[in-house]
Write a structure and sequence with these properties.
The protein is mainly beta. The chain has 2 domains: about 85-200, Immunoglobulins (Immunoglobulin-like, Sandwich), CATH 2.60.40.10; about 210-320, Immunoglobulin-like. The chain contains 2 helices and 16 strands. Strands 2, 4, 5, 7, 8 and 9 form a 6-stranded mixed sheet that branches.
Length: about 325
């Protein structure tokens, strides 16, 4: 073979090899699992910026400073000053509310009071009737002893159950030496009281009780006065009266009768009321002259009748007494 032919053959072989190389590329190398993970981590690291080693602190925000709030002042009310005179009711020592008494029975009501004022109650202070039913009690009674603030005292008043059955209530207060009234309660102006039930077991027929009361003057003459209580179950409408001096056997009055003999008080002068009812108390007064025999024993003969002019049923009683 010639040199030229050999070179032509070599060129053809190289051309065929080059064509085969383009048609079948060499296979890619197979990667292991660790190589794949490493490749993914490297790709992620390249895609994301690297985190800074120190996290920057957020900028500081200045906290505003406010002035302290102005305190609110609450006014504290001052204590109400205690009055000079003020009482406090403690208890009923005697006669609780609603106590029963027979008509004409006498009793003593006693209250226990505390001095809650600032002034001492002196012996010039008194317990005084204020209103309601007085029940023949005196208008006022002295305390009897001094009572400094904070101390207690028992104050007592004598009374009598009224002659007409029913419920009776009387109100009382204290009075200082200057005449100022005061009592109990928040303001020291409330009255304290006594309340009773006057009851009767009187017989159904006519009856009465009589006692000597006093001597007083009417029209320049001396009058003998007698307390009369209807203790029966009927009214009296008329009276016959006689007064006799037992030392001289001289008749000082009567016997005379009257349809209006009944007086309201022991110092009234005749004439008076026309009748006296069951349980009622009245007075009868008769003249015994300008100069009665003082100190002499005397006798009253009193006849009361249930009708005028000594009519109806009559009851007669006698009473011996001393002319004052």
């Amino acid at each position: 073979m010639s040199r030229l032919a050999g070179m032509s053959l070599l060129a053809g072989v190289l051309l065929i090899a080059a064509c085969n190389l383009r048609q079948a590329p060499a296979p890619s190398p197979t990667l292991s699992q660790d190589q794949v993970i490493a490749t993914a981590v490297e790709a992620t690291s390249q895609a994301m910026p690297a985190a800074p080693t120190d996290t920057p602190k957020p900028p500081e925000v200045a906290t505003p400073t406010f002035p302290p709030p102005t305190p609110t002042l609450t006014a504290v009310p001052s204590a109400t000053p205690l009055p000079c005179n003020k009482a406090e009711f403690v208890t009923d020592v005697t006669v609780p509310d609603g106590a029963d008494f027979q008509v004409f029975d006498t009793f003593t009501k006693t209250w226990r009071l505390r001095n809650v004022g600032t002034c001492t109650w002196t012996t010039g202070y008194r317990v005084v009737f204020d209103r309601g039913d007085q029940m023949l009690a005196p208008d006022s009674v002295a305390l009897g002893s001094s009572v400094p603030p904070g101390s207690t005292i028992d104050v007592s008043v004598p009374m009598e159950a009224p002659g007409t059955p029913g419920t009776y209530k009387g109100y009382w207060k204290l009075r200082d030496a200057g005449g100022v009234l005061f009592g109990v309660g928040a303001a020291g102006t409330v009255a304290f009281w006594v309340e009773i039930d006057s009851i009767s077991s009187l017989p159904p027929g006519p009856n009465f009780d009589v006692t000597f009361q006093n001597m007083h003057t009417c029209g320049g003459l001396q009058y003998s006065t007698f307390w009369v209580g209807d203790s029966g179950g009927t009214s009296f409408e008329s009276a016959q009266i006689e007064v006799k001096d037992l030392d001289t056997s001289v008749v000082l009055y009567g016997p005379l009768h009257s349809n209006t003999p009944f007086l309201g008080t022991a110092n009234d002068c005749p004439p008076g009321a026309t009748s006296i009812g069951p349980g009622s108390v009245y007075f009868i007064a008769v003249s015994i002259g300008a100069s009665p025999p003082h100190g002499h024993d005397a006798r009253l003969t009193l006849k009361l009748c249930t009708a005028d002019n000594l009519g109806g049923d009559c009851v007669t009683k006698t009473l011996e007494f001393v002319l004052p």
